[in-house]
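for the recovery benchmark. tokens below, seq after
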């Protein structure tokens, strides 16, 4: 099949039975192939136009909703679905949670080949207005977010995901117009010159360090940090529960960032070590340990896959890798450390399931799903693995 033929629009009638990893509705074509339909809801009966064909699947757009799903609702944002920031504003929040739980359990079964299942999904009180950080783009005339799967800019002066102070800043920036005007209303000049503006909630002025407070601890943020503090607290508490540290035990936290989780869980341990390869994040982590009064917690700047442990086998290891999951070297490092317990935190169910299958000598005891990013297709997991007897 040549490219010209593969992109010819074909109209079909389908019933949506579930959701893909990006939040798309999933159906079957007459020939058995899976088709992914953006902005579809489980239970929809649709007339669709196939926009892209592959050997085993296809992508399509909705032409007409023949019979709407009982889970379908009217989107509450005028920029949806053109703006690529949200994936689920066309369905109820309850259905969104079911979709995310389905995604995790499908990955555990199909990719991991594991018998364990997540029984539920935890969410914070705020479904909207939870983000403490926003990255906006400008073409010199308009400021906003990228269109889904595109670099086209959708102008936005208010976003339902952002905290109130960020929306105030966004409104001012939208009125300012061109990047050269951004600095007059508080955007850092180095971002404005690039046509990119990054806003942080709680900053007194651009350039000030971002401070987040979680459960009585305060953290200087440098680089990556959870954008939803309310849901982060739920995740951190679950990780602390799974780690179950005592004052006689040691903890190692790989990919520790600014040390938020290291401190949150490590305060229960006799000693804790955070490992992070970003020097700025390590500097912030050390300051956070000092500021919060934890002399038993240390940090080193190193690759999680290649560092000289120089320590005895820890009682627990926490891993919170990037979306691509653990590298082969990192998997080997965890195996070499041979902890009694592993707490694995992941933002991608597929790579999580793959790594859980590869962590030989451990049994996955529990999987907790946390809705860290409401109204988007992203989901966070926290898993407890226990070393098998004799391993």
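predicted aa per position
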């Amino acid at each position: 099949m040549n490219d010209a033929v593969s992109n010819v629009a074909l109209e079909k009638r389908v019933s949506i039975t579930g959701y893909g990893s990006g939040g798309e509705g999933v159906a079957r074509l007459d020939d058995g192939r899976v088709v992914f339909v953006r902005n579809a809801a489980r239970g929809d009966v649709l007339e669709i136009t196939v926009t892209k064909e592959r050997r085993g699947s296809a992508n399509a757009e909705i032409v007409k909703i023949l019979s709407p799903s009982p889970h379908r609702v009217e989107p509450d944002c005028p920029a949806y679905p053109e703006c690529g920031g949200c994936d689920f504003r066309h369905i109820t929040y309850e259905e969104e949670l079911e979709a995310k739980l389905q995604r995790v359990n499908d990955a555990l079964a199909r990719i991991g080949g594991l018998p364990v299942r997540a029984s539920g999904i935890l969410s914070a009180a705020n479904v909207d207005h939870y983000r403490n950080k926003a990255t906006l783009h400008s073409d010199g005339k308009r400021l906003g977010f990228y269109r889904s799967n595109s670099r086209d800019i959708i102008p936005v002066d208010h976003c339902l995901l952002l905290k109130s102070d960020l929306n105030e800043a966004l409104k001012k920036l939208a009125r300012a117009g061109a990047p050269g005007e951004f600095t007059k209303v508080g955007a850092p000049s180095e971002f404005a010159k690039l046509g990119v503006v990054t806003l942080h909630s709680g900053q007194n002025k651009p350039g000030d360090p971002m401070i987040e407070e979680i459960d009585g601890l305060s953290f200087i943020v440098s680089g990556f940090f959870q954008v939803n503090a309310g849901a982060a607290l739920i995740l951190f508490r679950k990780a602390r529960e799974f780690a179950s540290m005592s004052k006689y035990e040691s903890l190692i936290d790989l990919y520790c960032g600014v040390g938020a989780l290291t401190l949150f869980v490590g305060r229960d341990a006799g000693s804790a070590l955070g490992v992070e390869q970003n020097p700025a994040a390590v500097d912030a982590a050390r300051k956070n340990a000092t500021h919060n009064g934890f002399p038993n917690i240390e940090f080193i700047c190193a690759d999680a896959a290649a560092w000289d442990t120089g320590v005895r086998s820890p009682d627990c290891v926490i891993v919170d890798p990037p979306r691509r999951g653990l590298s082969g070297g990192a998997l080997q490092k965890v195996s070499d450390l041979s902890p009694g317990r592993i707490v694995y935190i992941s933002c991608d169910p597929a790579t999580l399931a793959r790594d859980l299958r590869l962590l030989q000598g451990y049994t996955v005891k529990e999987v907790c799903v946390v809705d860290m990013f409401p109204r988007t297709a992203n989901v966070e997991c926290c898993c407890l693995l226990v070393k098998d007897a004799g391993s």
